[in-house]
Amino acid sequence: MPKERGHNLIARNRKARHDWTVLDTYEGGMALTGTEVKSLRQGRASLVDSFATIDHGEVWLRNMHIPEYTEGTWTNHAPRRSRKILLHRDEIERLMGKTKESGLSLVPLSLYFSDGKAKVELALARGKRVHDKRRDMAKRDAEREMARAIGQHRKGMR
């Protein structure tokens, strides 16, 4: 059977960039059971309310929901169990330092298959305050309005 190539998106945390200021991103593998992988291949997962923690030098993804595999038997997995993220030791140590000293958090941004292996994109992030969210929305609206005006000018409507 030929290996799967490319980047197949399974789930994306859409609210993450709205609620958090992303400072840096990391890609890590995941330690999964067989029924979890089969459920992910069906495109079923949710990153809502999930987060990552570092415990005893290991990174764990908490509260991610992978529904039970429909064809599974009594060996099915628990949908919200903690899953280990596989990163290099120096990346884990760097993340430990930054999360402890700066008060930053680890937030999952997306879950995907890369060359047939399940990967998660983690962000080192700082929480946004309400005024930061308002400023970002105003900036986005202004950019959209400028692009609309430029498009109308090019078409000769103004």
From TrEMBL:
The keyword RNA-binding applies. InterPro entries: SmpB (IPR023620), SsrA-bd_prot (IPR000037). Residues 134-158 are annotated as: Disordered. Keywords: Cytoplasm, RNA-binding. The keyword Protein biosynthesis does not apply. GO terms for biological process: trans-translation; trans-translation-dependent protein tagging. Signal peptide: none annotated. GO terms for molecular function: RNA binding. GO terms for cellular component: cytosol. Its main location: cytoplasm. Required for rescue of stalled ribosomes mediated by trans-translation. Binds to transfer-messenger RNA (tmRNA), required for stable association of tmRNA with ribosomes. tmRNA and SmpB together mimic tRNA shape, replacing the anticodon stem-loop with SmpB. tmRNA is encoded by the ssrA gene; the 2 termini fold to resemble tRNA(Ala) and it encodes a 'tag peptide', a short internal open reading frame. During trans-translation Ala-aminoacylated tmRNA acts like a tRNA, entering the A-site of stalled ribosomes, displacing the stalled mRNA. PANTHER family: SSRA-BINDING PROTEIN, TMRNA-BINDING COMPONENT OF TRANS-TRANSLATION TAGGING COMPLEX. Belongs to the SmpB family. This is SsrA-binding protein. It comes from Actinopolyspora biskrensis.
